[in-house]
Amino acid sequence: MSRQHHYIKCESYFFQEAERGVKSFEVRLNDRDYRVGDMVYLQEFRDGKLTGRELKGKEILFVLESTWNGIEKGYCVFQLAERTGQ
């Protein structure tokens, strides 16, 4: 299966925390079928619009889906890190 590329809006506060390297995960509606190995590009979103700032692609290393207790049905949590391979 080929690697998917996801461009997703990220509220400014969370974008800045990800940019600083403090936040390395996302909690998302899993409407895109996020998978290990996919690439995520965070796009800063402020006051209802995109700012034009984007973080370079991060690779999804781990996905925790709603089949686990504590995660709402249809949602997932995924870990992001610098791309490790091609």
Summarize the structure.
This protein has one domain: Archaeosine Trna-guanine Transglycosylase, Chain: A, domain 4, CATH 2.30.130. 9% of the residues lie in helices and 49% in strands. It has one helix and six strands; from the N terminus they run E-H-E-E-E-E-E.
Structure characterization notes:
- The chain has 86 residues and is mainly beta.
- The protein has one domain: Hypothetical protein (Archaeosine Trna-guanine Transglycosylase, Chain: A, domain 4, Roll).
- Helix content is 9%, strand content 49%.
- The chain has 1 helix and 6 strands, in the order E-H-E-E-E-E-E.
- It has one helix at residues 12-19, and strands at residues 5-11, 25-29, 39-46, 49-54, 58-65, 75-82.
- Strands 1, 2, 3, 4, 5 and 6 form a 6-stranded mixed beta sheet that branches.
- The longest helix is centred in the first third of the chain and has 8 residues, at 12-19.
- The mean pLDDT is 92.
